[in-house]
Design a protein that fits this description.
Helix 5 crosses helix 10. The model has no long low-confidence stretch (mean pLDDT 94). By secondary structure, the protein is α/β, with parallel strands linked by helices. Helices cover 33% and strands 16% of the residues. Strand 2, helix 6 and strand 3 form a beta-alpha-beta unit.
């Protein structure tokens, strides 16, 4: 059999191992293990979320609504957006992969910062794109350097704020200026998986809401602050045309 050379040589993303697996391997009591590798919410989910999941168990013999009608409309209302501005995925990781499906191909370029989230390089290589890694600035993003790295072949630029795994953040004014400065032919993916933990998060969603940038995609998740990692609910917020392309690649 001839395997794809891209997939064959692709590095494997290894998430934090389950507590039960570590306990079995080392003969430990699971209750004595504290897991830090996956940034799981130690407080667990809301009791209301648990109640909703239990109520849904009576319907698990039915296929779910692939369009996520009720959740999409509820979230759109909460965010002041339209449903066509939101796409859901199997965790935010799938949204990142959908970016690859919709925007990347062989010889396209992807700009990232050193110490970026491990999935960004994997997505780039999976679709045969060239990864352009910009040196870090105190373990964070050098936005000026990332702008300078953009070429006519650049398709996507990834910025995580706060950054995973270093925990650094970009000043709000600098990030907004950066987003407004990226050329129109480049999709700016701002990974906001941890933005709820910021006391003063940047207001990037208004840029999309007001139509000031059509090449901006915000990626968020219910896994962290909401403690729903086991449900794998991630979502993206962007211009309706971008969202439509991501949904076609799903």
């Amino acid at each position: 059999m001839q395997f794809s050379s891209v997939v064959r040589d692709l590095p494997v993303y290894i998430p934090g191992r389950p507590i039960e697996e570590v306990a079995r391997e080392y003969g430990l009591d699971p209750k004595e293990i504290i897991k830090l590798a996956s940034n799981e919410n130690p407080l667990g989910p809301s009791p209301l979320a648990v109640k909703a999941v239990r109520a849904f168990l009576r319907k698990i013999h039915l296929y779910p609504d692939g369009n996520v009608f009720y959740l999409k409309n509820a979230l759109a209302h909460k965010l002041g957006m339209k449903p066509e501005n939101i796409v859901f995925g199997n965790g935010s990781n799938e949204i990142l992969e959908l970016v690859g499906h919709a925007f990347l191909e062989r010889n396209a370029e992807v700009v990232v910062s050193r110490y970026c989230f491990a999935v960004y390089p994997i997505v780039a290589r999976l679709f045969g794109a060239k990864l352009v890694e910009v040196p870090d600035l105190n373990y964070g993003h050098d936005l000026t350097g990332m702008l300078a790295a953009i070429t006519p072949e650049t398709r996507v630029i990834f910025v995580a704020n706060p950054n995973n795994p270093t925990g650094t953040r970009v000043p709000n004014e600098s990030l907004v200026k950066f987003v407004m400065s990226v050329p129109d032919h480049v999709l700016v993916v701002v990974d906001e998986a941890y933005f709820e933990y910021l006391e003063d998060p940047p207001d990037l969603i208004s840029i999309i809401r007001e139509g000031r940038r059509t090449n901006l995609l915000l990626v968020r998740t219910f896994s962290k602050i909401y403690g729903l990692a086991g449900l794998r609910i991630g979502y993206g917020i962007g211009d309706a045309r971008v969202i439509a392309m991501l949904e076609k690649g799903a």
